[in-house]
Amino acid sequence: MIATQENTMKDTDIKRLLYTHLLCICSIILSIFIPSFFLENFSILETHLTWLCICSVSVTAVNLVLYLVVKPNASSKRSSLSFKVTRFVKCCVYFLMSCFTFHVIFVLYGAPLIELVLETFLFAVTLSTFTTVPCLCLLGPNIKAWLRVFSRNGVTSVWENSLQITTISSFVGAWLGAFPIPLDWERPWQVWPISCTLGATFGYVAGLFISPLWIYWNRKQLTYKNN
Amino acid sequence: MRLGSGTFAACCVVVEVLGVVLFLRGFFPAPVRSSSSSKHQAEPPAPEPSAGASSNWTKLPPPLFSKVVIVLIDALRDDFVFGSKGVKFMPYTTYLVEKGASHSFVAEAKPPTVTMPRIKALMTGSVPGFIDVVMNLNSPALLEDNVITQAKAAGKRIISYGDETWVKLFPKHFVEYDGTTSFFVSDYTEVDENVTRHLDKVLKRGDWDVLILHYLGLDHIGHVSGPSSPLIGRKLSEMDGVLMKIHTALLSEERETLLPSLLVLCGDHGMSETGGHGASSTEEVSTPLLLVSSAFERKPGDIRYPKHVQQTDLAATLAIGLGLPIPKNSVGHLLFPAIEGKPMREQLRFLHLNTVQLTKLLQENVPSFEKEPGFEQFKISERLHGNWIRLYLEENNSEVLFNLGTKVRRQYLDALKTLSLSLSRQVAQYDVYSMVVGTVVVLEVLTLLLLSIPQALSSKAELEVPLLSPVFSLLFYLTFLVLSAVHVIVCTSTESSCYLCSLSWLTAGGVMVLVSALLCAVVSALTKVLVRGKLLSKNAAHSNSRWSELDLLILLGTLGHVLSLGASSFIEEEHQTWYFLVSTLCLALCHDIYRNYLPGDDCEPQRCLHVEGGFDGATPALQDKNTSSAVLELNRGCKSPSSLGTLRGYEKWMVLASPWVILTCCRLLRSLNQTGVQWAHRPDLGHWLTSSDHKAALSVLAALSLAVIFALIQRRCSPASKVAMALGLLGVYCYRAAIGNVLFPWQQDNKDISKGILEARFVYVFVLGILFTGTKDLLKSQVVAAGFTVKTVGLWELYSGFVLLAALLLRPHNLPVLVLSLLIQTLMAKFVWKPLRHDVAEVTVMHYWFGQAFFYFQGNSNNIATVDISAGFVGLDTYVEIPAIFLTAFATYTGPVLWASHLVSFLSSEASSSSALSHAGFCYALIGSFPVSAYIILVTSLRYHLFIWSVFSPKLLYEGMHLLITAAVCVFFTAMDQTNTKS
């Protein structure tokens, strides 16, 4: 009896997950096409920085809206205003910190230190929107929870599982995106950081697609510990 | 026969080296050759063609020039003469180019752009094979037909001053010579003064016909400080003065003789933006070629732009100019402007001679030469030429004669161009048979290594080598018979030369025995693995061990690197691959550390997810590696790392910070030397430091680096070698100060630059002393069974000896590479490998990766030009072959060698398991031989690729050399392991 109840709950969760992910994908696709109506000669490659800004803003907005509407973890008991404000401020600080951390990591990976700083930083912002923002929405500014989710077997819900998958696929996408840079094809998208941002975006979209399907496929094997 | 896995791996790698050598011998083809040997030179020159009427001009045409002076300036790039630098620093030459009686060309050199092959190309007109690079260090006499030999045979008196390569290439050809050695790269004044000091005397004397001057100083400046150095301008001005002197002397002498003289200014190769040469970038292959003679009169206002020609064209032009037969193997065509001023009949005669020579070469090298367009053009132009001669002899109307002559001339020029092009494309065939046999040996060895993974990495670290097993003797003899039959058939049927066939029957038989024995070993190992696999699948208890992220990264990284070798850009930028992999490795370690050390939800979550599928695609062999790798741990005990509580605060922070420190170090090193192709021109710290304005900064950095090296290395040494180390490092600084790289604080002006031989030998004494002490300790531990600690001390001592030698050989701006290498090794050993308890295989692979990355951090690349040959002459008075080769190899492969040496010392001092060393040796052999084997197959399939000579071949040589180093390391591992088991 309990098992069936759990299963139905899981099924509805997966369905909601799928819809939210489809919305996220839509927001990315729209961020590619909508601005060309308002901005002259807008294209992903030529006005790459503009696109990066628009894309990260729209993804952040969609994530926030979805978080407020769907409320995947309705467990926050205290709901005083001051708590919410401090939480929001903390989230912003975390987001900025993650941007800077990513920037430092890119430089350590070999990105130019002095030139192209804006490009590198915007790439860091984009990667943060794909990874840190969903984490902040779902887990809040709680390092312990993050460590739990990203250690091997610490996932406790469908949502966290999908979070794990999308985040890892974004990272892998960005990592793979660096591969074409040394090739001598002389294409416009081989310039730093375009191939990496595109890789991260593809990785994120792929993660969004794959995670509901994967969870649906393995729903029998997945048993989450409820606390 | 039971063998330890380390011994087994060492044997495998040694056999693999043999296979690779065989492959290399087959891969590097012999260049286009004329089959008639240079001995029979009495071939009569082709007579003038004639239709009907017989021409009486059958002898060789007389020389055009009485005297020829060839001024060859090493590494003279085209823009040094024709560009802004030429205008600024070479005013006389610029005057000659723009207004004087001269013809200027940009001559394209074919890679490899190294001196000896280039001299060969200039003098024979043929394209030397790539393997000439390897021979560059000991150039044997040139036996091919060439201009110098022909000139000597014609009784010309030849004088040569400059690079002694000429004397080696043409022994007994010169009536007078003074060779200068090209290996003291830091000397760029004396080497040229030795040439110029003869000039006055020789020019006044005038009892010679050909004078060859080879100036090396410019090349040395390029090697030391690059093409933008201020020294370049000074050197160019000096060269301009030399040219002016020669030209005026020639002009004044010309008044007494009938024939004009010729002055040739050329470069053998260019200079890349970093100052090296060897590859095929535009800067390296474009050289100026300037022909100056009063025969090339021109009216004022006649502007001639430098035309693009081939370097090989000079040989034919010189031969015609001196009235000699054109060298038989020359693929160049004569530079037409040089004979433009002659009467039409002579012009056509010269063109005809050249065309006949090229056609003969084509006939000998291309089976279907009748179909070649050049051959048809030749036939047409010869017929037309005959008609022209008939008209000429009938003394027809000069207008008609001239028009027809122009037409014939154009036909000839077209034919020459086509012939020359198709001949230079005609690279000799690959020796496929030797390549196949070499590949088979290498692949068999690799398969054997892969199949023996589970046994070799088991806790016993021993494996059964079924060489003597009688069961397989039938198979062995059968394969041997079949292979011998194939060998006989191949060798009797092919016409083209084949290395294996040219070997004696006994040696070839030995190769066949080797191939079949390896095949038997592979088959038996395969059956064993299958049997084991069945057994294992019955008790499926092994499935509980899973790949950690680190293992996955290591596997994927290795595979990815091997696959990337198929793309020429990834080879050119291979350093990027390694930097990327090492950075990722650091992040993965960081992830590992943080997961283990940061306080999380302590309630150790149970396994909720069962991820099946993802990793099951791995090969069974590698899965077995996984099962056995669970057994080998650095320290006995559970694999879960010591928890946070056991570490003190300082150590905890060091553990948490060390990946970031290592990442930062790698980033710093990355900006020290820009290598590769695409970003090589970017400014880097190395260039900044080596420029003469920042000598003080370099001195401070070098001194600081040496101090840090001492601080890092001295913990491990015995007191005696501590003193030796300190004195040795001081000696290194003195050596660098003596040769003028760095400054002493009390000596601000560097007046006396010596070769630093005394100082370098002083350091060598300490290197040998430390190495000797280390060896003595090792021997003691073996003979007296003095125990564990003595051996460890001995190993660390050997390691410090290597470090000292590296400090001596590395260029001063590369000393930080050594420092950071030591720092990273210390950090990794203390704060990553020990607390996290990585298993031996992981530690080995990480050492290998870091070794590769440091190879590129030093400024190496997959390009011959970046090899620092000056390292081979540290402390040597003259060029001594064996030490020079050894020192150059050590300096080039410092990174991999130091990391391997650290691996041995670290494992023997940390691991309590006795089999750790042999496991490490096995893993090192495996991971070292994997890329070579894959690359051999890749290169074979890409052998008609456009970049095969410029990108893939140098990489092949590097891979071969790296395998040799790996073999040496594995033998070293085995030796250490032997002493271990005996003690």
TrEMBL record, chain A:
Return the GO cellular component terms, semicolon-separated. endoplasmic reticulum membrane
Keywords of the record, alphabetical order, are: Endoplasmic reticulum, GPI-anchor biosynthesis, Membrane, Transmembrane, Transmembrane helix
Native source organism of the sequence = Equus asinus (Donkey)
Topology of this chain in the membrane: Multi-pass membrane protein
- Membrane-crossing ranges are 17-37, 49-70, 91-114, 120-140, 161-179, 191-217
Q: What is this protein called?
A: Phosphatidylinositol glycan anchor biosynthesis class F
From the Swiss-Prot or TrEMBL record, state where the protein is found. Answer: Endoplasmic reticulum membrane
Q: Please state the span of the N-terminal signal peptide per the UniProt entry.
A: none
Q: Pfam families in the record, alphabetically? A: PIG-F
Tell me the pathway.
Glycolipid biosynthesis; glycosylphosphatidylinositol-anchor biosynthesis
Biological process (GO) annotations?
Answer: GPI anchor biosynthetic process
Q: Which InterPro entries does the annotation name?
A: GPI_biosynthesis_protein_Pig-F
UniProtKB/TrEMBL annotation, chain B:
Principal cellular location given in the protein's record: endoplasmic reticulum
Looking at the record, the residues that make up the GPI ethanolamine phosphate transferase 2 C-terminal domain are 652-966
UniProt keywords (A-Z) are: Endoplasmic reticulum, Glycoprotein, GPI-anchor biosynthesis, Membrane, Transferase, Transmembrane, Transmembrane helix
User: How does the record say this protein sits in the membrane?
Assistant: Multi-pass membrane protein
Compartments where found: Endoplasmic reticulum membrane
Fetch the Pfam families from UniProt.
Phosphodiest, PIGO_PIGG
Q: Give the SUPFAM superfamilies listed for this entry.
A: Alkaline phosphatase-like (SSF53649)
Q: In which pathway does it act?
A: Glycolipid biosynthesis; glycosylphosphatidylinositol-anchor biosynthesis
Of the GO CC terms on this record, one is: endoplasmic reticulum membrane
Q: Is the Glycoprotein keyword given for this protein?
A: yes
Give the GO molecular function terms. Answer: CP2 mannose-ethanolamine phosphotransferase activity
Recorded protein name is Phosphatidylinositol glycan anchor biosynthesis class G (EMM blood group)
Which species is the source of this protein? Answer: Equus asinus (Donkey)
